[in-house]
Amino acid sequence: MKSILITVEGPIGIGKTSLARELNRAYDLQLLEEIVYENPFLGKFYEDISEWSFQLEMFFLCNRYKQLQDIHSKYLQQGISVVSDYNIFKNTIFSKRTLDPDNLNKYLKIYDILTEDLPQAHLVIYLTASIDTVMKRIAMRDRDIERNMDITYMENLIADYEEFMQEFEKQHPNTPVIKLNCDHVDFVHNQGDLQQVLDKVDPIIRKLLAE
């Protein structure tokens, strides 16, 4: 079997890491989790987005770039499949929301250079939900750094994801995208909901692994 890269994407607090861990267990995949809370600019960013956005985005980009380099050489090139709780394309979603035009232009040039030769996902699992659901789940996990989350920022982010994913599917017709609406599905706390999700993604994952 060939090695594949599965990425799980969606807004903050939607359950990306939880689902990636479940897929890791179900299919014996190598798990890649993004470095988030080690970012020294994250707390400052939530307090003042315009002031700290460039530093925050550059930190994330460099760390994700290094992670994907390592995953490519240590696992994918060795025939080991990987599931990640992020796709590096998320950098463009966040940066276009947070950076001013001058910094955005510089940032996207760096992004294009760094990501040119990185491995691309064979499957994207896209999690989405309403703002009410997302904010409730952020509150439930009760992380200090997220307690000052701006609801307007989150509303815009959810809309940004939806717009990006629609365009992504048009531009990458050969990359399967599984969209899961999480408003009435809580696979983190409900085993039955988790099984429904696994049943939905299973045929595609097994097909990709067998190709």
UniProtKB/TrEMBL annotation:
Signal peptide: none annotated. Residues 6-205 form the Deoxynucleoside kinase domain. CDD domains: dNK. It comes from Brevibacillus panacihumi W25. GO terms for cellular component: cytoplasm. GO terms for molecular function: ATP binding; deoxynucleoside kinase activity. Keywords: ATP-binding, Kinase, Nucleotide-binding, Transferase. This is Deoxyguanosine kinase. ATP binds at residues 10-18, 137-141. Belongs to the DCK/DGK family. The keyword Membrane does not apply.
